């Protein structure tokens, strides 16, 4: 299916069904386990991924699937689904409704379509460079902020301003913007794509499934996603999303080029 719009209703349907699973668990006592890397995982994470893998495999039997909890199933197609069942499990455990179910579609190893569904907010953000980006069916665009001193910056964990190896870069940027807030994980990228914030920055520890949907979603909204050096590298653990207009200036600031 080369027409990316044709995937929209499918991802919308599956996201809503996954959201029903999440809400059921959210309204119960949430039991948390620790994975080998000490990150949290819940029964909801696993159940949502199992559901999505099963439904996507039935609809697209030739497509590979790679998910956070159950690894990769390799098939013959040039297409591959990437699944993060609950991006922001820590928020989920804290009963904070800023987590999302993320799905990306790769074509020849490059993410071309991304979606984020916020189950508690009942919001579906979906988009690509080819189609544009939409929130519950309505087109969204990044902000038009051109003055960095008036920008809003989002980070996931405020401790990255204190003890991360990239802290100097983040502090330099934080001192140049108008407002800094810690709305974590995929929610920060949602804010940038919808024009509600100007920059989302995560300096380390991101996994591929954490960022795979971001380039197409941001591109479809007129924004830009790179690592902290300005490269599109989804494997080095970094994420920088902006409204495009500020991107080059932000790179100069964090890399001390001005």
Summarize the structure.
The protein is α+β, with helices and mostly antiparallel strands and 258 residues long. The protein is 30% helix and 26% strand.
Order of helices and strands: HEEHEEEHEEEEEEHEHEHHEEH
Alpha-beta classification:
alpha+beta
Number of domains: 2
Radius of gyration, whole Å: 17 Å
CATH fold group of the largest domain: Fructose-1,6-Bisphosphatase, Chain A, domain 1
In percent, how helical is the residue content? 25-40%
CATH class group of the largest domain: Alpha Beta
Characterize the overall form. globular
Largest sheet: 8 strands, mixed
As an assembly, this protein is single chain
| Arithmetic mean pLDDT | 95
For the record, give the distance between the C-alpha atoms at the N and C termini, rounded to a whole number. Answer: 46 Å
| CATH superfamily caption of the largest domain | Fructose-1,6-Bisphosphatase, subunit A, domain 1
**How many H/I helices?**
8
Low-confidence parts, pLDDT < 50 over ≥5 residues? none
Number of strands: 15
Strand order of the largest sheet: 4-3-5-6-7-8-9-10
CATH architecture of the largest domain, by name, is 2-Layer Sandwich
Mind explaining what this structure looks like?
There is one protein chain. This protein has 258 residues and is α+β, with helices and mostly antiparallel strands. The chain has helices at residues 8-26, 43-59, 89-93, 167-176, 186-193, 208-211, 214-220, 247-254, and strands at 32-34, 40-42, 64-67, 71-73, 79-87, 100-107, 110-118, 123-128, 132-135, 138-139, 152-154, 179-181, 199-202, 224-226, 239-242. The chain folds into two domains: 4-137, 2-Layer Sandwich (Fructose-1,6-Bisphosphatase, Chain A, domain 1); 148-254, D-Maltodextrin-Binding Protein, domain 2 (3-Layer(aba) Sandwich). The chain has eight helices and 15 strands. Helix 1 packs antiparallel against helix 2.
